[in-house]
Amino acid sequence: MLYIAFGFLLVAFLLFIQARRQRHAAGMPFGRIIFADTRTWGAVEQPIYDPQLGLVGKPDYLVEVSGGDLIPVEVKSSKIGSVPYDAHILQLAAYCLLVQSQFGKRRLMGSCIIQTIRLRSTSPLSWSALSKTRYKKCTLATKRETFLAHTAPLPVAAVAATGIVVTKDFCNIIVPVMPKALPEKTVLIMAHPKLPEAVEQAAKITDLLNAQGIQTETGLLYDDHLHQLVKAGEAKMVIALGGDGTMLRAGHLCGPYEVPLLGINLAGLVFSPKWDWNSGTW
Amino acid sequence: MRTIRASEIGAYLFCQRAWWYSKSGLPSENQAEMTSGSELHLRHGRAVLSIGCLRLLAYAMILLALAALAVYFTNQLL
To answer: Which CATH entry fits the domain spanning A186-265: 3.20.20.70, 3.30.450.40, 3.40.50.10330, 3.40.640.10?
Structure first.
């Protein structure tokens, strides 16, 4: 009987170790889960609402750790680098605000679990699969410089965009005003930097389009901000001026985002037809 | 003042245009990614549940061990 008792204790010990490993792999803080929004069983968790802030939300988990601190945990499926986006941090900040208003003054902590290795959706989750899955955990304590106002302000652009006003204690969230319509997308004009004619003609096209009331953004082929506009879906179309290489580069840029491309070939020796500005023909 | 959701803040910061489309009632074209994200949340939820089950099982084992020890020492005393 004594051996059986020790056997049970050994199994219990191994189970605790396994649970600890699994929790570490899942990126969860150690503590008691008092709120879980990811479950499909039981009653649906009620969102936390603060009428004064006009804010409502449900974190994926709310974990009570030793010392009574409550940590809202948010799981993100996007694949990103070693740090979460500002969008993730500020969403978590909003949850911290809600937790603070609902449960009283507590230390402001949050945890963002970001999936770095995507599980195959077709494969069932097994112990071995779970243990192989790694979640990147980033606590807000490590992001104090962008999170807590009294150490450093939030990025100005982020504050302006969301209407999140940073105060000494924390931040107040003001409702972003929904515009009736977004501004018209921009026509991007890209010129090859080593072709003076391309730069000159790009300026002419810009003037022409602006005179028609069309919003344009003009720059050189390698300008990063033009590339960012294409990637952000803000480009209505791209007009590229240069040689064959310019066309290919612009095509590689526009293709994945399905942005229409108008190529105007100006180089001396080209495979594609050259545009003659004087005669207005190819 | 309109009540906003915390997730809305994240969506707004991530892509204002996508947020605006969503608020305008336009369905997202990234349905596959959204489904995949929901599945990930469910899988994570199941994983967290299984952690709780493991711990519960471990406590049950400790109780059984205590019961077995109680039986052993009772037999020894009798």
So the answer is: 3.40.50.10330
DSSP line for B22-73 = HHTTPPPS-HHHHHHHHHHHHHHHHHHHHHHHHHHHHHHHHHHHHHHHHHHH
Instruction: Judge whether A94 and B7 are in contact, CB under 8 Å.
Output: no
Q: What is the pTM (predicted TM-score) of this model? A: 0.55
What is the value of ipTM here, to two decimals?
A: 0.83
Q: Please state, in angstroms and rounded to a whole number, the distance separating the CA atoms of residues B4 and B23.
A: 11
Q: Say if B56 is an interface residue toward chain A (CB within 8 Å).
A: no
Of residues B4, B11, B48, nearest to A55 (C-beta):
B4
What would the pLDDT profile of A204-236 be if each residue is shown by its tens digit?
898 888 888 888 888 888 887 788 788 877 788
Contact A77 B37 (CB under 8 A): yes
CA-atom Rg of chain A in angstroms: 27
What total number of domains does chain B contain? 1
B44 in a domain, yes or no? Answer: yes
Residue B1 lies in a domain: no
Three-state SS at A210: helix
Q: What is the pLDDT of residues B8-65, one digit of tens each?
A: 877 776 777 777 777 777 777 778 878 888 888 888 888 888 998 999 999 999 999 9
A3, A4, A60, A116: which to substitute to probe chain B, counting the most B Cβ within 10 Å?
A4
Nearest-Cα distance to chain B for A223, in Å, is 21
In a domain, B57, yes or no: yes
DSSP A4-52: HHHHHHHHHHHHHHHHHHHHHHHTPPSSEEEEESS-SSSSPPPPEEETT
CATH 3.40.50.10330 positions along chain A are 186-265
